[in-house]
Amino acid sequence: LPSEIVVLCRGVIGTLTILLVLFIQKKSFHPDTIRANLPILLLSGACLGLNWVFLFAAYRVTTVAVASLCNYMAPIIVIALSPLVFKERLTKKKLCCILTAFIGIILVSGVFQNGSGDLDLGGVGLGLTAALCFVGIVLCNKKSAGIDPLEKTAIQLAASAAVVLPYVLYNQWGDTLSVDTRSVLLILVLGFVHTGFAYILYFGSMAKIPVQSVAILGYLEPVVSVLTSALILQEPITAGGILGAVLILGAAVYSEIDH
After folding, report:
1. For residue 106, is pLDDT > 70?
2. In the predicted model, what is the mean pLDDT of residues 152-165?
3. 146 alpha carbon, distance to own chain's centre
4. For residues 26 and 224, what is the distance between their CA atoms, to the nearest angstrom?
5. Cα–Cα distances in Å, from 44 out to 12, 50, 54, 203?
6. Using CA atoms, how far apart are residues 255 and 95, in angstroms rounded to an integer?
């Protein structure tokens, strides 16, 4: 399936997952808190959808390594802005941890081993724009207050799907999609488990920990990707990838240890 179709399905199925959880828990929406936070929730959902759109657009014109590397500039931008936006003190420890994690990201991405190919400045720009959109997600989530994590995530995922829909219609208009049973099952797993359930945990945690911690822990995602691709897909893992994973894990753990 085209990447933008996968992204749209993530938003739609993820939203339905959260609505199902709310139904099972017999929870109702709280209109007052939703109304109070609605502008920032819609903005964060739009940022989420645009992050997906720009990242997949970057994949089309440059290498996956370069696009991913640009996208993972987001945590560094978040930490740089946190003293100004949230009045969180930027300690030397946090700064060292984020720089160590970013070095790990460079190693994990394999951009040096695989080469950057024809470095397309447009692709770099799209990747950095995706990073800025991700920064918007984190900042908006920290600004929203007093709203249930499930309600928050449902609105954000629905907004992301609404933002992605015009992009899908533009790219796929007139095209015929060929979908097999395996693809449908994988899309359902991706939507229910890896979007709905995962985003409940992710967005719910943002209100409870400092934004700098959110940024650093976010670097665990590529480590998990590298390890699972090696274990499940039998993709090769390089010495640089292993070293990068160790640096990221070490930085994430050390940054959260109180002294």
Report:
1. yes
2. 89
3. 23
4. 34
5. 16, 10, 15, 11
6. 9
| Residues constituting the chain | 259
Q: How many CB atoms lie within 10 A of CB 204?
A: 15
Give the separation between CA 28 and CA 8, rounded to whole angstroms.
26
Note the pLDDT of residue 12: 93
**Which tokens is 138 given?**
């984190």
d(CA 39, CA 47): 12
pLDDT 10s digits, 44-89: 989 988 898 888 888 878 777 677 778 878 877 887 787 887 777 7
140 exposed, middle or buried (CB, 10 Å; 0-12, 13-18, 19+)?
buried
Rounded to whole angstroms, how far apart are CA atoms 226 and 89? 32
Cβ atoms of 188 and 13 within 8 Å: the answer is yes
pTM assigned to the model: 0.72
Q: What is the per-residue pLDDT across 15-30, written as a single tens digit (0 to 9) for each?
A: 999 999 888 988 888 8
Per-residue confidence band for 114, with pLDDT thresholds at 50, 70 and 90: low
Separation between Cα atoms, residue 52 and residue 237, nearest integer Å: 26
Two tokens at 15? 């939203």
Classify residue 160 as exposed, middle or buried by CB count within 10 Å of its CB (0-12, 13-18, 19+): buried
Residue in 197, 229, 172, 140 with CA at minimum distance from that of residue 56: 172
Task: Please list, residue by residue across 176-188, b when 16 or more beta carbons sit within 10 angstroms of its beta carbon and e when fewer do.
Answer: eeeeeeeeeeebe
Mean pLDDT of 168-190: 85
Could you tell me which of 221, 202, 126, 171 has the C-alpha nearest to residue 2?
Answer: 171
Could you give the C-alpha distances from 220 to 15, 114, 137, 253, in angstroms and in order?
Answer: 24, 22, 18, 10
